[in-house]
Design goal:
The chain has 14 helices and eleven strands. It has 366 residues and is of the alpha/beta class. A seven-stranded mixed β-sheet has the order 1-2-9-6-5-3-4. Strand 10 and strand 11 form a beta hairpin. The chain binds nicotinamide-adenine-dinucleotide and zinc ion. Zinc ion binds next to helix 11.
Length: 366
C-alpha cells in the first residue's frame, strides 16, 4: 500500500519548502523510482547508522548512492560525526544539486539534515525515517541539529527536505521501548490537536482509544493513518510558524519537564519519549492545579497515558533539582521558562509565569 499524502509544509515565501510526505509499506524497494520525481541529483550520499544498515541496507534501492554507515546512538550526534558526513560529501564530490539522504532514526535525520543544510550552503536533502519517532515527528518540520557538550541540539538550522519517505514496514524491527518512545509523541499530538488549527478534525484522541491493539500490532492501514494524522498536525503547526516564533512552541508539550529530566539523569535513564511522557503527566497535573482543566479531562488524559503504558516510574529521583535545572537551561539558552499547559480537551496554552512551588507540586506524580 502506498499512500500519497497531501501533507505539504508550505512556507509561503519559500517555494522549496513545500514537500510531500509519502507513507506506506515496502517503499524502500521503490525508493529509486520515487525519489527521481523529487530531486535532479546525479549522486546520493546515504547517511545511516550501523543498526539501520544491518537491517535494511539491502532493501533500500537507490542507484548511484555512496553509503556512509555511522555508529548508532545519541552520543554520536556531535560535531565529529558531522565532520565525517561532510568529509564524505567532499570525498565523493557531491555538488549542490546532489542529494544527502538520511536513512535511520531521529539522530541520523537531524545530523544528515544539518550536513545537507551546510554543505555548499545547502544541497538537496531527503528523509527516509525508520523509527516511529522519526516518522511522526523529527523528519517533519525542518529542524536539524547536532548536540554540543553544553546542550542538546545547540547547533542547528531550519532546513526542509525535498521529500519524506516513511516506510512503515521498517517499524517491525523496533523493540517495544522504541515503539513506545514514538507513541509518546503521538499521544502529545492528541493533547494539542485543537490548538494545531489544522484544516481537518482528526479526533486523534478517539482514534487512539479505538485502535490501540492495531497500533501495537502495527496494522499497516491503521499505522499509516496514524502517521498521516500526526504529520498533518505537525505540518499545520509548522506552516503557521516555521521558525518557532509563536505557535510552534505547542509541540513542546511536556518538553520543559522532559529536558530537565533527561539532563538530570544524564540521558541514560529515560528515552526522550519516556521523559516527554513524564513531562506530559506533570503538565496535566500543573494545569489541574492552576484550574486550567477540569478533573474529568485530567482523568481522561491520564487514562490514555496509562492505557498506552508509556509513563515510566519516576520514583527515587530528586524532584527538588528539576526547577533549578530548568532555570539553568533557560539561562544557557537565553530564553524564557515556558510551559505548554493543557487548557481544555485537545487544547493547550503557553504559560511563562510558572513558579518554583508550582513545579515542585506538579512533579509529584507517582
Ligand atoms: N528535528 C526534530 O524536530 C526532532 C524532533 C524530535 C526528536 N528529534 C531528535 O531525534 C532523536 C531521537 O530519534 P530516535 O528516537 O529515532 O532515535 P535514534 O535515531 O537513536 O534511533 C533509536 C535506535 O533505533 C535504531 N533503529 C533505527 N531504525 C530502526 C528500525 N527500523 N528497527 C530497529 N532499530 C532501528 C537506531 O539505530 C538507534 O539505535 C534525538 O536526537 C532528538 O533530538 C528531533
Ligand atoms: Zn520530543
Amino acid at each position: 500500500m502506498e499512500q500519497l499524502l497531501n501533507v505539504k509544509v508550505n512556507i509561503p515565501v519559500k517555494e522549496a519548502s513545500c514537500y510531500d510526505i509519502l507513507i506506506g509499506t515496502n517503499l524502500l524497494e521503490k525508493a529509486d523510482e520515487i525519489i527521481k520525481k523529487y530531486t535532479k541529483a546525479d549522486k546520493f550520499l546515504v547517511v545511516t547508522d550501523k543498526n539501520t544498515a544491518k537491517l535494511y541496507k539491502n532493501n533500500l534501492n537507490i542507484k548511484n548512492a555512496h553509503w556512509l554507515v555511522l555508529e548508532a546512538g545519541e552520543e554520536y550526534k556531535n560535531i565529529n560525526t558531522l565532520k565525517t558526513i561532510l568529509d564524505a560529501a567532499v570525498e565523493h564530490r557531491l555538488e549542490r544539486s546532489d542529494c544527502i539522504i538520511a536513512f535511520g532514526g531521529g539522530v541520523i535525520g537531524d545530523m544528515a539534515g544539518f550536513a545537507a543544510a551546510s554543505y555548499m550552503r545547502g544541497c538537496d536533502f531527503i528523509q527516509i525515517p525508520t523509527t516511529l519517532l522519526a516518522q511522526v515527528d523529527s523528519s517533519v518540520g525542518g529542524k536539524v541539529a547536532i548536540n554540543h557538550e553544553h546542550g542538546k541540539n545547540l547547533i542547528g538550522a531550519f532546513y526542509q527536505p525535498k521529500l519524506v519517505l516513511a516506510d512503515i514496514t521498517t517499524l517491525k524491527t523496533l523493540d517495544i521501548r522504541q515503539l513506545k518512545t514514538g507513541l509518546c509523541e503521538v499521544l502529545k499530538y492528541a493533547f494539542i490537536e485543537k490548538t494545531c488549527n489544522a484544516p481537518l478534525n482528526y479526533r486523534l484522541f478517539d482514534f487512539l482509544k479505538q485502535h490501540k491493539e492495531e497500533i501495537f500490532d502495527l496494522n499497516p492501514a491503521v499505522v499509516s493513518q496514524l502517521i498521516n494524522i500526526c504529520c498533518s498536525l505537525k505540518a499545520s503547526v509548522v506552516n503557521q510558524d516555521e521558525t518557532e516564533k509563536g505557535i510552534r512552541a505547542i509541540l513542546n508539550l511536556g518538553h520543559t519537564f522532559a529536558h530537565a529530566i533527561e539532563s538530570l539523569t544524564n540521558y541514560t535513564v529515560y528515552t526522550h519519549g519516556e521523559a516527554v511522557a513524564l513531562g506530559m503527566k506533570m503538565a496535566f497535573k500543573m494545569s489541574l492545579q492552576r484550574g486550567f482543566i477540569e478533573k474529568h479531562y485530567f482523568e481522561l488524559a491520564n487514562e490514555l497515558l496509562d492505557e498506552y503504558d508509556i509513563v515510566p516510574d519516576f520514583a527515587g529521583y530528586d524532584r527538588e533539582k528539576l526547577y533549578p535545572e530548568m532555570a539553568l537551561d533557560k539561562k544557557a539558552r537565553n530564553g524564557k521558562l515556558r510551559f505548554v499547559l493543557p487548557n481544555g480537551f485537545g487544547s493547550v496554552t503557553v504559560a511563562n509565569d510558572v513558579t518554583e512551588a508550582q513545579v515542585l507540586e506538579s512533579v509529584d506524580i507517582n
